[in-house]
Amino acid sequence: MNEMQLLREWDAEAPPLTDHARARARFRLYETMSAPAAPVAVGRRPLLRIAVAGVATAAVATTVLIANDSSPHTQTVSATTVLRGAAAEDRSLEKPIAARDDQFIYTKEIIKETPAGGGSTRTYVDESWSSVDGSKKSYVSELGHKQWVPVYRPGQSDWPPRRWTDLKLLPTDPRKLVIALRDMGGKPDYSKPMKAADWPMTQYFVTGLLRNPVLPKGLRAAAYEALAAVPGMRVLPHQKDADGRVGIGIQYVGPAGTPWAHGGRILFFDAKTYRYLGAHERRTAAGKTYEQWSYVAASAVVDRVMQRP
Questions:
Q1: What is the mean pLDDT of the chain?
Q2: Using 50, 70 and 90 to split pLDDT, how confident is the model at 242?
Q3: What is the C-alpha to C-alpha distance for residues 203 and 141, in angstroms, rounded to an integer?
Q4: Each residue of 33-49: b (16+ CB within 10 Å) or e?
Q5: pLDDT tens figures, 117-128
Q6: Which end of the chain is more exposed for a tag (fewer CB within 10 A), N or C?
Q7: Residue 25 neighbours by CB under 8 Å, 6+ apart
Q8: Cβ count near 31 (within 10 Å)
Q9: What is the pTM of this model?
């Protein structure tokens, strides 16, 4: 029995938590898990992704110099420029999707994992079929481990939201999205300015939202722009993704005392187009630490489990 099954069965008769209370409980759980010097990450299941793993890194800068193909000189690029560029690129390539409740979100994710102390690299090809509204059993794969996920119980929810109807309720205006995620579980107060203490939790929610492989039109671009507004976003030059492509890394570095004080998950972007390439994070399991590189190779809406686009 794994830890998620234990969490499901613990105090099973209690009334279900609200989305806001559940998210804050998960955040507190992650803070406790991240207390040791070595960052800790939880499972990668598409339905259970509740943490943003920490990644310690050196030479973090707010801007980097990258080569400009049209000039022998270099140009300064900030995290804001990269993330806004990613938003523009996503809007130009986006194909609107209308998912029905009886359908499934198909994803094919490539994960490469190497022991932190050195060793051979393992590659996993995880294919998953997640019920759009949770009313049907989902079939998910996590580092090669395949399993059926039960239907949602009454009142059950998750973060990031998986129900298409819940996702469509989120605003596609970046400023409003930040406020909506800050005030998740209640009515957003768009007149209330963000405070410094709000940002670590809010970036956790924004990054969590970006983990969804399929989102309603405009929401992913809005999330990139919302992330661009977060204080503490850093640029890491010359980062390699899971396929060895060199690009720009973007990482959140939070205040001292937060789980992200040494840096969060690294997002990779193409240095020319700012198209999203993949991510890098650190996973700890059974006393061992692994470096992980991942990217989504394919995603689509399908009518049944085991159907591929």
A1: 80
A2: confident
A3: 26
A4: bbeeeebbbbbbbbbbb
A5: 889 999 999 999
A6: N
A7: 17
A8: 14
A9: 0.77
Whether residue 302 contacts residue 308, with contact meaning beta carbons closer than 8 Å, is answered with yes
In what helix (H) or strand (E) does residue 169 lie, and over which residues does it extend? helix 164-169
Whether the bond into 160 is cis, omega within 30 of 0: yes
Whether the CA torsion 161, 164, 169, 172 is positive or negative: it is: positive
First to last CA, the chain: 33
Contacts of 170 (CB under 8 A, 6+ apart): 161, 177, 180, 181, 209, 216, 219
Give backbone dihedrals phi and psi of 281, rounded to 5 degrees, phi first: -150, 175
How many angstroms separate the CA atoms of 77 and 57, rounded? 19
Please, which pLDDT band fits residue 49 given cuts at 50, 70 and 90?
very low
Question: What is the per-residue pLDDT across 63-80, written as a single tens digit (0 to 9) for each?
Answer: 444 444 443 334 568 999
Nearest to 82, CA basis, from 181, 222, 227, 211: 227
DSSP state of 152: P
Helix (H) or strand (E) holding 165: helix 164-169
pLDDT of residue 56 exceeding 80? no
State how far the alpha carbon of 109 is from the alpha carbons of 196, 266, 270, in Å: 35, 17, 19
Q: Are 280 and 266 in contact (CB under 8 A)?
A: yes
Of the candidates 222, 225, 270, 232, the residue with the CA atom closest to the CA atom of residue 249? 270
3-state secondary structure of 199: helix
Alpha helices in 62-109 (DSSP H): 79-93
Quick check: 66 and 249 in contact, CB under 8 A?
Answer: no
E-state strands within the chain? 63-68, 71-78, 104-115, 122-131, 138-142, 145-149, 233-240, 246-252, 266-269, 276-285, 288-302
